[in-house]
Amino acid sequence: MPLEQLTVAATQDALVAGMADLSDLTVVGVDVERADWDRYYRAPALIQVGGGGRVLVVDPLALGDLAPLAAFLAARQTVVHALENDLVPLAACGVEPPHVDDTAIAAALLGLPTGLSALLEAQLGITLEGDKQAMQRADWEARPLSEEMLRYAAADVADLPALWQELDRRLEQRSRRGWYDEELATTLAQPAVEERRAWHRVKGVGSLDPPARARMNALWRAREDLAQRTDTAPNRIVGDKVLVDLAASPPAGVSDLGRRGMRRQSVRQFGDQLVAALDKPTAAPLPDPRRRPTDADRAAADRLRTLRADIAGRLGIDPGVLCPNRVLLAALLSDPGSAEELRAALRLRAWQWEQVGAAFCEALGLASQGRASSDVSRRPRSNHG
Questions:
Q1: Which residues 6+ apart lie within 8 Å of 357 measured at CB?
Q2: What pTM was estimated for this model as a whole?
């Protein structure tokens, strides 16, 4: 439905009054606009809450205490789209909704478009207005915000509860509620993006020799420390590609960093610490070392990839949702000797293994243990609309 009511809360009184206007909603959509692209820590510049065409836009930069918002959401079901973009910034200001559903996860498991604009149009016939690219480049910390920015932000949540209701119905209709519960629980349990970063996951590290890996480890740790202490995005200090190059071929000194690809401001601010890190490399073997892939390994991975595509096609979902491409060859290099070892190496959840396990085992000549039970653990569903 069209946006019927838009309220901005930049004072405690306005926040309390705005939530009172939404008190009849038992399911609310929530979205966050951020302006932290150049920072290490994620924080909200704007928080939108609403449903049924009514939206409260909360200004966390003007409000020191968001406890009333936290209490409001604690008593309701919160619907977000791509929770990793929203929950960490919300938690940074003390707002941690306990009952969360994610329309992006549901859409992926139903084989639907996962972009919010496409999803709203396909499922509810709602077209989001405004210049999306311009809004993504907008400075959401600027005040005052334009009417166009406010309406764009509000539109992201005005119909989220209705969208969730439709997706929830479809999950039930297609007997994929258990899949959804498992995916949601896994996503909620993941550490924040900042905690999942690691030096050995940087592209190009695998080609470094042991001394260069030790230097890379030292450089990466120094960059991470600087990023945390100064709240600067790591790639704003020095990009991954440059970091690998510096580890492979150390610079002659700080003055050499600019010629190697670092920004001038970063050289001035961080150059001394990065060069100092190169003087203290520590042994850094790659974790979980595996043998190099053979032609037979690659052929086996291709067979699994083809099987995965066929199964995903029958299910009507993206192959990557069924089993991420990046894990196939890596799992084979762990030389699994049983179905259990293969599933562990692939890190598949119960619903995924139920779909591909028997076919994968047959393709690899492993004794299949049968399909996993479809009765996966479910969280309480009482909070679903």
A1: 339, 342, 343, 348, 368, 369, 371, 372
A2: 0.88
